[in-house]
Amino acid sequence: MPNSLFEELDWRPTPIGTLSLRRRTDPASDIEVYEIKLGDEFLMSSLFTVAEVELARLGLAAAFGTELDVLVGGLGLGCTADAVLQDSRVRSLVVIEALPEVIEWHRRGLLPLGAGLTADPRCRLVEGDFFAILGSPPGHLDPEDPHRRFHAIIVDIDHSPRQVLSASNAGLYVPTGLRRLAACLHPGGVFALWSNDPPDEEFQATLREVFPTAGAHVVSFLNPLNDRESTNTVYVATAET
Fold this sequence. Notes:
alpha/beta; 7 helices; 4-stranded antiparallel β-sheet; Rossmann fold
């Protein structure tokens, strides 16, 4: 008999380890929790989504215009992408996700936000390594339109600019990488980045080498695992007009 408090919805062997999707009932709140794990490491949990939503909100709050083209690096549980689509100014959204299994889970409706994301004609899910794609000639973030630019690029992949999931990702967080990203933005476009670490003054200085304005927002939320306040950081930088 399956445990009614826990259900493994899918699991896949991948080149980087076993990827699994599970749903459980949180005993403290009696709510359904969706979790994605890589081996024994938790990659994503629906218990912690405040900062992912705020990433989209803060990024788009700095964007100007009534018809916005947005790119999100990292699909995950879909919270950031869903929050982007809640902004009525957004006319298109491209989401780049490195793990094809995660995209498939959304398309199969195994994740709560999947049906809405895949049914929205503004939203397109793209399988690919955001960092590798960005490392190609500037302006090549959209494989269907190599010279396309965006009004906002919002990224939630690494733990922080210093705690990267792969050594090859580190190239984004230096001036040359940030300049490649800025070249994919419209004049006055916005770059927003999630981080699990407190604001990093050195990284903010690096951002200001490339972007005229850049700052860090601390996002606070209740951690239900220890009943204490936790914080994440959202960096927002604006390109030259």
